[in-house]
Amino acid sequence: MFRMMAFFALAVAGLGTAAAAQVALQRPIPVEAKAPAPPLWAPLKSPDRRGEFIRLCTSHMAGRWAHPQAVCGCLHDHAIAAVQDPDLREALLRGIGETGVPTIESDWVPASKQSRIDETFTQIAKPALQCMFEPLN
């Protein structure tokens, strides 16, 4: 952009003919391709999955709790860690990361495991409430 404006200024100042300036301005300017932005929630591939979860979760917990990072860290370490099934655990991570509350949408898990969603919430209820009201350090 700067090069184009500098060239245009020089051309207008009389350092080239109008025809030369027109030809130069018609050359395509190379544009760097940008990678598409990742979706808000994608299964985390980074080495610091816990840190990324806490970052996403904290944005929803701020204002609700005095120590949102402690609540989110506790949810990750105690409530979510209690879920043994990887599909249900990943769906729970997604739900808390996107909404700030334990959530699992049925289309986030395979049809064969959708019947286990209620069981999963029962499993995490006590540790999740402890994290929110009596954070474990």
Kindly describe this structure.
The protein is mostly helical and 137 residues long. The chain contains 6 helices and no strands. The two termini are 52 Å apart. The N terminus is likely disordered.
Mean pLDDT: 74
Rg result: 26 Å
Would you identify the regions where 5 or more consecutive residues have pLDDT less than 50?
1-25, 35-44
Topology, number of strands: 0
β-sheet strand percentage:
under 5%
Helical run tally:
6
Shape: globular
As a percent range, the share of helical residues equals 55-70%
What's the helix-strand series?
HHHHHH
Structural class: mainly alpha
Largest sheet: none
What is the rounded distance between the termini?
A: 52 Å
What are the SSEs and their pairings?
Elements: H1 2-12, H2 18-26, H3 49-61, H4 68-79, H5 86-99, H6 117-133
Helix pairs in contact: 1-2, 3-4, 3-5, 4-6
Name a few traits of the molecule.
disordered N terminus; 6 helices; 137 residues; mainly alpha
Q: What's a concise summary of this model?
A:
By secondary structure, this protein is mainly α. It contains 6 helices and no strands. It has helices at 2-12, 18-26, 49-61, 68-79, 86-99, 117-133.
